[in-house]
Amino acid sequence: MHYDLTPLRGMSDLEIPKQSSDNNNFYLSVCAVPSRTCTSEECSTCDVTDPAGVDVWTAPGQRCAAIGEISTAVWHLQQPGVPTSGVAVQYTNGDQEDGYGPHRGAMLVFKCDPSVSGAKGVSATEHPSMNYVITIASAHACPQLPQPLSWGWLFIIVSGVTALMYFGGGTAYNVRVRGEEGLDVIPQWQYWQQLPGLVKDGLSFSWTHGRVIAYNAPRELREWWRGRNTKELTTPIAAATD
Fold this sequence. Notes:
The protein is of the alpha+beta class. It has helices at residues 151-176, 189-192, 195-226, 231-234, 237-241, and strands spanning 14-17, 25-28, 53-56, 64-66, 74-77, 87-91, 96-97, 100-103, 105-112, 120-127, 131-138.
């Protein structure tokens, strides 16, 4: 399943209120450090240099903290069996509370919503051990359909089309222009007649020489192993040529 969230990168900060009575607001930018960061007055013990987002609240003392580091991002499908459920990214190693205790962490859930052209913050909740779940709705969180073809399928399709053009076009040319009949209408039929013999010769060559190599390989390996510490093999080339 393929998703493309790149159109959301570089957007202005999303402001998402926390569902509690603490008057908290989360500020984040998708896949980037938000413009709103914690100042030294708001967070004297904060040390995260690449915050995935910040939590700002009204309280005495520390009132701002990073909820995770951008560099710790781990992406996964929200529900692997339900593509329309969207994707999620987990951030860890955020700021600690007052400089000690567990590090904050956050999971951003991108919910598929075709009606939202950009991104819209839906909800933000806090779970035990300073972990947050923030839900963002966007049409870009919906799976792209049809899915892009893999390199393997592209190779098969291109090879098939090339073969069809070669044989179809060549046959039409031989019939209409050259007036060929029977098997002679096949493009370069005289060369294709040689293919079975060439394949047989190649297999025979590989079998004959492969048997010789397989027969001599154990003896040559034993000889190399016995002489691996000889002076000729251990002496550097520069020293040997002086």
